[in-house]
């Protein structure tokens, strides 16, 4: 399995409130994480960092996951636990009042991947069937699209596009959407914050992800394209590629 994590402050924001990474459990299985904090500096970055640290430390202590049911239980349990931690921190620290974070994470094994999400950070898959989004945004605009009140095209320019209806750490209880897919040789998962998905079209994402097996170049080009298109937000991504015969690649670039 090959993977890469990259995050970039973008061209406008003073701070980077995104966090993420790619980590192994005791059996060498992969957990890829992207969290996009909200609430301003020293709040949003606290929420995303707390979430990342808890999931990383928990995953590194975890033994082998054998099937999708085990994966789902692990993700539900640890989402509940970290949500309580973030929520309690926001209540106990005035400077963090109202903070929260989106979360998308993928538990990847040699045969399947289980993906969980809260908020509008996304996961896409590229495989022999093409390129598609696996997650549903928990946003006001997406609810309007699902209800047929606006078109997907109108949603791209809606003035309330960034309003979330669910995030981690903003209330006492939250559950992620979870799905499992077959993860075969040559398949690629792209996890990203909306700093990428709002600025780079589906066609551009697919084209760049398909263009090369050099994940360092692909990740760099995706971030550059988001910045070229304005870079108003922090930009964070993980790519996980199922190629069991190749050595792993893990590159972190935090700017």
From TrEMBL:
SUPFAM superfamilies: PP2C-like. The keyword Secreted does not apply. Transmembrane segments: none annotated. It comes from the Bacteria. Keywords: Hydrolase, Manganese, Metal-binding, Protein phosphatase. Its EC number is 3.1.3.16. Residues 2-242 form the PPM-type phosphatase domain. One of its GO terms (molecular function) is metal ion binding. Its cofactor is Mn(2+). PROSITE patterns: PPM_2 (PS51746). It catalyses: O-phospho-L-seryl-[protein] + H2O = L-seryl-[protein] + phosphate; O-phospho-L-threonyl-[protein] + H2O = L-threonyl-[protein] + phosphate. The keyword Cell membrane does not apply. Gene3D superfamilies: PPM-type phosphatase domain (3.60.40.10). It holds the Pfam family PP2C_2. Coiled coil: none annotated. Signal peptide: none annotated. NCBIfam families: Stp1_PP2C_phos. This is protein-serine/threonine phosphatase. The lineage of its organism: Bacteria, Bacillati, Bacillota, Bacilli, Bacillales.
């Amino acid at each position: 399995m090959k993977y890469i994590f990259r995050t970039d402050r973008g061209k406008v924001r003073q701070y980077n409130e995104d966090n993420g990474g790619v980590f192994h459990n005791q059996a060498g299985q992969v957990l890829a994480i992207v969290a996009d904090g909200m609430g301003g500096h020293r709040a949003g970055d606290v929420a995303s960092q707390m979430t990342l640290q808890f999931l990383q430390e928990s995953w590194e202590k975890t033994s082998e996951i054998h099937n999708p049911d085990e994966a789902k239980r692990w993700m539900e349990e640890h989402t509940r636990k970290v949500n309580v931690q973030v929520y309690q921190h926001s209540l106990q620290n005035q400077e963090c009042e109202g903070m929260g974070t989106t979360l998308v994470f993928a538990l990847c094994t040699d045969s399947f991947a289980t993906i969980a999400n809260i908020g509008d950070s996304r996961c896409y898959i590229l495989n022999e069937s093409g390129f598609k989004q696996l997650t549903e945004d928990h946003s006001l605009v997406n609810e309007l699209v699902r209800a047929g009140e606006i078109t997907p095209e109108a949603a791209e320019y809606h003035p309330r596009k960034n309003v979330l209806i669910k995030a981690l750490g903003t209330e006492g209880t939250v559950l992620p959407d979870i799905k499992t897919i077959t993860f075969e040789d040559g398949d690629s998962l792209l996890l990203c914050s909306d700093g990428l998905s709002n600025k780079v079209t589906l066609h551009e994402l697919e084209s760049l992800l398909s263009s090369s097996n050099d994940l360092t170049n692909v990740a760099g080009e995706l971030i550059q394209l988001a910045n070229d298109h304005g870079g108003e937000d922090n930009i964070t991504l993980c790519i996980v590629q199922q190629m069991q015969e190749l050595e792993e690649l893990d590159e972190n670039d935090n700017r």
